[in-house]
Recover the amino acids of this structure.
């Protein structure tokens, strides 16, 4: 799906309320679609989408969630070593991912499966690293989508450096870096903000505030809303309803266009929620209450867009049935692909360490080869 007619602009006058009214003491939240599926307007951000484009966004979120759920199941069955689920964050990822242009460059963390989908990365390629059969599985330059970054926060620096290079090259593309609320406390992110501001780099910092940095709640990460941190570095920040795919799309498009036109960096805080565990090695029941999850389930990004599609007559039962069948087919393809992935060459870990070879590496290669051969001898 390509969203071409979605330039953020000043909205028309409307009798409906403007965005999400902030509660007492709460920061303003950009919202264009309420949890009940009602379309509202915002004074600074708006977007016009055709029924086909709305259905496309819904399809993206449904397929991403199904693929993500299949990956979690595969990990539980011993087919993957680990998996970081995006459950509940589909709107934040699909909305921002669809806001990018082909020539923009994306620097993800390890949970941006929906953004990868938008950039055209095959879902099966995401699983190779978590199965331990490759170091990434895709060429970053084919889709302008960098390899997953496990080191927390470092991709913000990578994105800033790349954006500085883009500016020096005179290109009109933009860069976007993803990170979580926990990563916002990392020094790498602070340094990225500093360099981006000083060099007016064309980069958008996209923070998915899913409320929990593993077991640490956001209030232990910051005393102010995360988007306000941008003020201290000299560039703007905005908080958007991260479960509203339309608002995320509008805000991210505006931020990327701002970067492309030389206005510098911007911080987007997508206020969302991690419905599942931090990774499959985590047990969220040990540190958060079921009532909290139930509260956010009522704000489900997929259900709210479906409610809007049904209310406006933009999708019928045949569409939803066909999409469910497509999701089933995707899950089967992913499952079959994972179970048939070939094991990597045991000796490949010694390749490409030094351009011209190294005596110590050669010695270690020989020792490891002998160690591997000992297993074959024992079985004979």
């Amino acid at each position: 799906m390509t969203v071409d007619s979605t330039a953020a602009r000043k909205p028309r006058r409307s009798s409906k309320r403007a965005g999400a009214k902030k509660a007492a003491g709460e920061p303003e939240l950009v919202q264009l679609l309420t949890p009940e599926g009602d379309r509202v307007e915002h004074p600074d951000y708006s977007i016009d989408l055709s029924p086909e484009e709305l259905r496309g966004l819904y399809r993206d979120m449904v397929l991403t969630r199904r693929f993500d759920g299949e990956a979690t199941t595969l990990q539980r069955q011993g087919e993957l070593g680990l998996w970081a689920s995006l459950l509940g964050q589909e709107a934040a990822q699909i909305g921002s991912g669809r806001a990018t242009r082909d020539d923009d460059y994306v620097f993800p963390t390890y949970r941006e499966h929906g953004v990868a989908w938008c950039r055209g990365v095959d879902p099966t390629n995401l699983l190779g690293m978590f199965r331990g059969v490759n170091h990434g599985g895709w060429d970053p330059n084919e889709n302008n989508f960098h390899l997953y970054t496990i080191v927390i926060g470092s991709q913000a620096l990578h994105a800033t450096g790349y954006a500085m290079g883009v500016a020096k090259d005179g290109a009109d593309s933009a860069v976007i870096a993803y990170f979580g609320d926990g990563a916002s406390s990392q020094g790498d992110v602070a340094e990225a903000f500093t360099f981006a501001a000083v060099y007016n780099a064309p980069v958008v910092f996209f923070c998915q505030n899913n409320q929990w940095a593993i077991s640490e709640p956001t209030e232990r990460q910051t005393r102010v809303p995360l988007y306000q941190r941008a003020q201290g570095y000299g560039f703007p920040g905005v908080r958007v309803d991260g479960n509203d795919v339309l608002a995320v799309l509008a805000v991210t498009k505006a931020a990327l266009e701002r970067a492309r036109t030389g206005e510098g960096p911007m911080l987007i805080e997508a206020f969302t929620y991690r419905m599942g565990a931090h990774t499959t090695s985590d047990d969220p029941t040990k540190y958060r209450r079921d009532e909290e999850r139930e509260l956010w389930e009522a704000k489900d990004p997929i259900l709210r867009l479906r409610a809007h599609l049904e209310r406006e007559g933009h999708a019928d039962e045949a569409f939803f049935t066909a999409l469910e069948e497509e999701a089933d087919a995707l899950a089967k393809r992913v499952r079959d692909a994972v179970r048939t992935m070939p094991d990597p060459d045991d000796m490949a870990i010694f390749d490409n360490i030094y351009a011209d070879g190294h005596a110590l590496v050669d010695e270690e290669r020989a020792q490891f080869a002998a160690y591997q051969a000992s297993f074959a001898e024992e079985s004979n």
About this structure: Residues 153 and 183 are 5 Å apart (CA to CA). The first strand starts at residue 105 and ends at 107. Confidence is low (pLDDT under 50) at residues 1-18.
